[in-house]
Specification:
Elements lengths: L6 E7 L2 E7 L5 E7 L6 H10 L31 E5 L9 E7 L5 E8 L4 E9 L5 E9 L9 E6 L1 E5 L5 E8 L2 E9 L3 E7 L12 E4 L10 E7 L4 E12 L3 E9 L6 E3 L4 E3 L2 E7 L2 H14 L12 E3 L1 H4 L5 H14 L3 E4 L29 H9 L3 E6 L3 E3 L3 H5 L18 E3 L5 H18 L3 E4 L9 E2 L5 E2 L1 H18 L4 E4 L17 E3 L6 H11 L8 E5 L13 H9 L2 E4 L8 H21 L3 E4 L7 E7 L5 E8 L10 E2 L9 E6 L14 H8 L3 E3 H6 L2 E2 L7 E9 L1
Parallel strand pairs: 21-22, 21-32, 22-23, 23-26, 26-29, 29-30, 30-31, 31-32
Antiparallel strand pairs: 1-2, 2-3, 4-9, 5-6, 6-7, 7-8, 8-19, 8-20, 9-18, 10-17, 11-12, 11-14, 13-16, 14-15, 15-20, 16-17, 24-25, 27-28, 33-34, 34-35, 35-40, 36-39, 37-38, 37-40
The chain binds (2R,3S,4R,5S)-2-(hydroxymethyl)piperidine-3,4,5-triol.
């Protein structure tokens, strides 16, 4: 650990640099953004001098700075980096520099801070990942020197980075059941743009990825700064602007962290609190640049799924709770026939579970519905060459269940009441060691017995009054989240080939914390392609397509009752980890053949879709979407031109194709395996040529002039492939 100051550290990766001044009392960011290149000591010192603040009128006598962990001790009047108090004692932590260490390869910086009076040791870690994301985390430890009898109540640890003056717009997300990741825009004004989740999970209205950017930034334009909190419990995101700015050089801060409930973290005797990792991304190329950095980060993980993402059939919207072996065997046969590679048996298979009111938590196969266990179905699935997946909701119970009756002490609720039910269910306190072991043992036994390949891990309610009955009713969201992570990790350790999907009332738990332990997310319970188009393309702001579950639902959507064309449903589900969620037995042979052709197409294009760069065009017409995936080599791309509704213009106009190589000539192909859309206006000449002859066009023209897109009827999509010749 180096202790000498001052020093200026320049972390550089992937065109991004982060310059930190190791100043007392707490180091600060001098610069975050476009790579400044190799800077010698003199250049770094000039940057420091050029960033030095001046004192302002009627304010602090010394210039104000905004450090990496600002507190009132530094005259910071915004949201403190570190909040907490000694029980019946001071609420004014004053961290000061104790040491720092920059790793040899120039991508890691650890800063040690201490507050000797209170007795805190704080470590801040900043890692600039190979794709240029700043992954930050911190820990606070009650130091050995502290008076062990006096506890420190930690109320918040928020990690922030500074924003420059030109960041003026905000983009973040809200949502509800069946409409997750709904974007919302606002302006940075004075004060705090604060988004909190107090639902015990990121939830359906999660801010998800909070971005600030230059005026009117878009998918392909503007400079963007983004933050994501990699955590599956309560959390907070903020952009904060004070009149005095964030130090002299920056006007606002962006950041986030875990939202701690009162009394949730009380430290004594060398106990340590670890923050989740908070990810900061910067892009000079709009939101797509932010996405590319996150996708590269996720794809670079050792645990990232490397096998082709199998085509799924999920039984939920096909049969719901109505489990009947013959019906499910027929479904398995048809699924195999159309090319499905993994069948997932959803809710309804376990003891007493005939509807949503009973049985949750009793993880044994229901012997009335499944007299021979799941074996006959599992065997058929395997005989047909498919993998087998099973649904669980391990953190939940119905009060009408064996487990809730036998172990009321395991329910996560105040001792004198069970609290409100949501979907007839309550939460099991997984931080209770007996409850944890019970649930783990049941899942483990079933995974072993049936050699289960895949778990759909559901979580269908918010947490309210999450009181730990075994700990004087102290709040338990944090411990619940950690116990969940432990269980997922333990299962994967025991069953290394097991894949897990994160589902929470649809897409209510989509974050990089859960993704450390899971292999895909269920984006939404809404399989209506009109809604799905938006949900998937926004979910892809953070996640690459191979991690986003996308299913073809019924002709009439079960959630919106909108009726849509098969080709539109098929093309929509292609842009994700594709699957089917409908009763195949009611389809005609011709329709089944359409599914089979689409399945072949999915298998052909998934290597591209699951490895390339996802790009979205900025279009003025909100009724049209244009997005696609461009191979890393840029020699191939697959785009989808989508029409959600009608709009004023008669013609869609020429749309530049983003992401292609200007030096290449491309052959444009129309992929019609999933169907060809119905058109509202005449087919443009190039499209007729591409369909029936051959159409080649220069990359420069595609990128600048673009292609005159056909005006489709509402709720239609066209699939275009570009191959360099
Ligand atoms: C909610 C999920 O989002 C659905 O896909 C389905 O698994 C149901 N739960 C089952 O209860």
């Amino acid at each position: 650990m180096t202790t000498s100051t001052p020093a200026i550290i320049n972390l550089r990766q992937a065109g991004v640099c982060l310059v930190i001044e190791i100043a007392d009392p707490v180091p600060r960011v001098l610069y975050w953004g476009r790579d400044l290149g190799e800077l010698d000591d003199a250049a770094l010192r000039s940057l420091s001098v050029a960033s030095r603040a001046a004192a302002t009128h009627n304010s602090t006598d010394r210039p104000r700075y905004c450090s990496l962990l600002p507190t009132e001790a530094e005259t910071w009047s915004g949201t403190p980096g570190l909040e907490g108090h000694l029980v019946e004692g001071t609420a004014y932590p004053r961290p000061t520099l104790a040491g720092w260490d920059a790793s040899g390869d120039g991508s890691m910086l650890t800063i040690d801070l201490a507050d000797e009076r209170i007795g805190l040791d704080i470590a801040l870690r900043l890692r600039l990942t190979p794709s240029g994301i700043v992954a930050a985390d911190a820990s606070v430890r009650r130091s050995a020197a502290a008076d062990g009898a006096v506890r420190f109540v930690l109320t918040g640890l928020t990690l922030t980075m500074p924003l420059p003056e030109r960041a003026v717009d905000i983009l973040d997300f809200t949502g509800k059941w069946s409409r997750e990741r709904s974007p919302q825009r606002s302006r940075i004004g004075m004060g705090t743009h604060l988004r909190e989740s107090r639902r015990g999970r990121p939830s359906l209205d999660s801010p998800f990825l909070l971005m600030a950017g230059t005026e009117s930034f878009g998918f392909g334009r503007g400079e963007v700064w983004g933050v994501h909190v990699g955590w599956s419990g309560n959390q907070r995101y903020l952009v904060e602007a004070l009149p005095e700015g964030a130090g002299a050089t920056h006007t606002a801060t962006i950041g986030g962290g875990e939202l701690l409930l009162p009394g949730e973290v009380i430290l004594r005797d060398e106990e340590t609190y670890h923050t989740p990792t908070v990810y900061f991304a910067w892009s000079p190329e709009g939101v797509d640049g932010i996405s590319a950095a996150f996708h590269a980060l996720l794809r670079g993980r050792e645990s990232h799924p490397s096998s082709p993402r199998p085509l799924v059939l999920n039984t939920w919207e096909a049969v719901y709770f109505d489990h009947d072996l013959d019906k499910l065997l027929e479904l398995a046969d048809l699924a195999a026939k159309v090319g499905v590679e993994r069948l997932v048996l959803d809710d309804g298979w376990f003891s007493g579970r005939r509807d949503a009111t009973k049985g949750l938590g009793d993880w044994t196969v229901d012997s009335t519905v499944w007299p021979a266990g799941l074996r006959p179905l599992v065997d058929r699935v395997r005989e047909r060459g498919m993998q087998f997946g099973l649904w669980f909701e391990p953190e939940m119970v119905n009060l009408s269940s064996g487990i809730a009756r036998e172990h009321p002490e395991w329910i996560l609720a105040p001792s004198d009441r069970v609290g409100a039910s949501i979907r007839h269910q309550h939460v099991l306190n997984l931080a209770h060691p007996d409850a944890w072991h019970h649930v783990f043992a049941r899942i483990d036994a079933l995974v072993s017995e049936y050699a289960i390949d895949y778990i759909k891990w559901d979580h269908n309610r918010e947490l309210h009054e999450a009181a730990r009955r075994d700990a004087a009713d102290r709040p338990g969201v944090r411990l619940q989240t950690l116990a969940l992570y432990r269980m997922l990790a333990a299962l994967r350790e025991r069953h290394p080939r097991l894949e897990i999907e994160s589902c929470a009332s649809g897409g209510g738990r989509v974050d990089l914390g859960i993704l450390q332990h899971t292999d895909r997310v269920w984006a939404s319970d809404c399989n209506d392609p009109v809604e799905r188009q938006e949900i998937q393309r926004w979910t892809a702001t953070l996640l690459p397509l191979e991690l986003i579950g996308a299913h073809v639902g019924s002709r009439e959507s079960h959630t919106t009752h909108r009726v849509t064309d098969l080709s539109f449903r098929l093309i929509t589900a292609l842009f994700g980890h594709a699957g089917i969620e409908q009763d195949l037995a009611i389809l005609s042979p011709a329709e089944l053949e359409r599914y089979a052709a689409w399945a072949r197409l999915y298998k052909e294009v998934r290597p591209l879709l699951h490895s390339g760069r996802f790009v979205r065009a900025d279009l003025a017409d909100g009724a049209s979407l244009f997005h696609g995936v461009v191979a890393e080599s840029r020699r191939q791309a697959l785009f989808s031109w989508v029409r959600l509704g009608t709009s004023e213009p008669v013609q869609a106009g020429r749309i530049p194709i983003p992401g292609l190589d200007r030096t290449c000539t491309y052959r444009v192909r129309v992929r019609e395996e999933a169907g060809y859309p119905s058109l509202q206006e005449q087919e443009p000449a190039w499209l007729t040529r591409a369909r029936h002859q051959s159409f080649e066009v220069d990359g420069r023209l595609l990128e600048t002039a673009g292609l005159l897109m056909p005006t489709l009827n509402p709720q239609e999509a066209l699939l275009l492939q570009f191959d360099a010749v």
